[in-house]
Amino acid sequence: MNNMSIDQVLNQMRVLSQNNVIPEQGAAERPDFSKLLNESINQVNDLQKEASAMKVAFEQGASGVDLPEVMVAAQKASVSFEAMTEVRNKLLSAYQEVMNMQV
């Protein structure tokens, strides 16, 4: 597995914001971090379920399911999972840094 740069993670977050996961700038409410994180995890889960369903359909010979579509869906799921893992790692690192601070 290759290491994803922070730019790739930020690009993924921008894509999520374009899909209305993050409220627009200038909105009256501040975004709720836990809600944003939960919705992002759900989107990754949905992509993985969709890719899995497409793989099963292709293996069973369902009409209308082409190999390129299956491969693209699998790669989308993989990239989104890697991005979510990288975000988790950065959050964990930040948490550990805060916990190790001298007061």
Number of distinct helices: 3
Task: Return the string of H and E elements.
Answer: HHH
Q: Rough shape?
A: elongated
Q: Any idea what the radius of gyration is? A: 17 Å
Count up the domains. Answer: 1
Low-confidence stretches: none
By secondary-structure content and strand pairing, the structural class works out as mainly alpha
β-strand percent reads: under 5%
For the sheet with most strands, the description reads: none
What proportion of the residues is helical, as a percent range?
over 70%
**Structure summary, number of beta strands:** 0
Mean pLDDT: 83
Report on this model:
This protein has helices at 6-18, 33-59, 67-99. Helix content is 71%, strand content 0%. It has 103 residues and is mostly helical. Helix 1 (6-18) crosses helix 3 and helix 2 (33-59) runs antiparallel to helix 3 (67-99). The longest helix has 33 residues, at 67-99. The chain has three helices and no strands. The protein has one domain (6-19, 32-99). The relative contact order is 0.12. It starts with 5 loop residues before the first helix and ends with a helix.
SSE map:
Elements: H1 6-18, H2 33-59, H3 67-99
Helix pairs in contact: 1-3, 2-3
Gist?
This protein is mostly helical and 103 residues long.
List keywords for this structure.
103 residues; mainly alpha; 3 helices; elongated
